[in-house]
Amino acid sequence: MADTGNAAGISADSATLTRAELADAVHAAIGLSRAECAGLVESVLDQVGDRLIAGENVKISSFGSFVLRRKGARVGRNPKTGVEVPIAPRTVLTFRPSQLLREQINRK
Amino acid sequence: MIRSELVQAIAAANPQLTKEIVENLIDTIFGEITEALAANRRVELRGFGAFSTRARDARVGRNPRTGTSVSVSAKRVPYFKPGKELRERLNLS
Questions:
Q1: To the nearest whole angstrom, how far is the Cα of A100 from the nearest Cα of chain B?
Q2: I want to staple A17 with a disulfide (CB 3.0 to 4.6 A). Which of B30, B36, B83, B91 is the partner?
Q3: Which residues of chain B does A25 touch, with a Cβ-Cβ cutoff of 8 Å?
């Protein structure tokens, strides 16, 4: 598909949605300046990230949940050399899509 | 944290905005991500993470209660890969 760009002159890669395009959509929805909207998009992402870093799960209804999982220490192995290496306990982040998001993605 | 608490936090940090505007902001962000995934696009938010979809083949499933087989059609499922920065910051403490 041809890349048409947009009013701001941001040449959006049609295969990928980025911050700039998100900020543009917010600008169209709430009418504040593009710079302010870019800042607001950033503050929303930061807020979600900060809660996760603080150890809290984040649940966005009708979208999905960002869920933290604590993994215990285990012995891993370098698959190339076969050398055993200890893997420290760590926290991984998983995303559980809501039923609505799953349906939206498969609608025709 | 849930959606309404996210709205409150953003509204508290931006006293110049009405709650309706902040609601609209949050709805637009997650709505746009949903629309992009539905259109078979990727969503790349550096530092935070990337949303994409993965294809699942059709398969024969089973109703766990009755044991009857049911066909499950091919579908796409949403996937999120946390960004490097977020992944690292989750493991600092």
A1: 10
A2: B36
A3: 28-29, 32
pTM metric for this prediction: 0.87
B70: left (phi over 0), alpha (psi -120 to 50) or beta: beta
Q: Which residues of B touch A16 (CB under 8 A)?
A: 41-44
Q: How many CB pairs under 8 A join A and B?
A: 131
Domain span including residue A107: 57-108
- Residues of chain B in contact with residue A14, where contact means CB-CB under 8 angstroms, are 41
- Give me the domain span that covers residue B58: 3-88
Q: Closest to B2 (Cβ–Cβ): which among A30, A61, A102? A: A61
Give the amino acid at B1: M
What six digits make up the tokens of B84? 């490097």
* Positions of chain B with pLDDT under 50: none
- pLDDT, tens digit, 9 for 90 and up, residues A15-65: 999 999 999 999 999 999 999 999 999 999 999 999 999 999 999 999 999
Contact A97 B77 (CB under 8 A): yes
* Calpha distance A22→A38 (Å, rounded): 8
A3 pLDDT more than 70: no
The two most distant CA atoms of chain A are separated, in Å, by: 58
Residue A30 pLDDT: 95
For residue A30, being part of any structural domain is answered with: yes
